[in-house]
Design goal:
This is STAS/SEC14 domain-containing protein. The protein is an alpha/beta fold. It is built from four helices and eight strands. The protein has helices at residues 46-55, 75-81, 98-110, 121-141; strands at 14-18, 21-25, 29-34, 39-40, 61-66, 72-73, 88-94, 116-118.
Length: 142
């Protein structure tokens, strides 16, 4: 389910439609919907990275990959540069078919960040929202 066709649409604070996909910004997290057939490398994410730094002012945020399309990730390249995305506190992936789930198994081998898997965009959003609320509370208590 696309973000803008879901109940989450009313909570979107900003949307950026870029060459590699659509990126929907919420209060504490981003939902990425990459375009069909793209191969995502870190250099492709440079513009998104700059938007994230600006939008969240360098603060931690949640990330949801809403895999409505089939695309690939240059996992070697992403792993080399992943420390640049260290503000990602929570990472969720929503898949809708078996082939997408199989691709995740390969990606998991290369990613050092724990990623939760979902088959529902709303469930992923609820989980990320709760995880970010817990994180923000812990930060305030320190």
């Amino acid at each position: 389910m696309k973000v803008l066709k879901s109940p989450l649409a009313k909570h979107v604070e900003a949307t950026y439609c870029l060459e590699i996909g659509d990126f929907h910004f919420f209060e504490n997290y981003l939902i990425a919907e990459f375009k069909q057939g793209v191969c995502v490398s870190f250099s492709d994410l440079k513009e998104v990275y700059d938007l994230l730094l600006d939008y969240y002012n360098g603060e931690s945020y949640g990330f949801i990959s809403n895999r409505i399309n089939s695309y690939s990730i240059d996992v070697i390249d992403m792993n080399k540069h992943f420390e640049k995305l260290n503000q990602i506190h929570t990472y969720a992936i929503v898949t809708y078919n078996l082939s997408a789930k199989r691709v995740l198994a390969v990606e998991d081998y290369y990613f050092n960040l724990k990623r939760e898997r979902f088959t529902s965009l709303l469930a992923a959003s609820n989980w990320v929202t709760n995880e970010m609320a817990i994180y923000k509370t812990q930060i305030k208590l320190k």
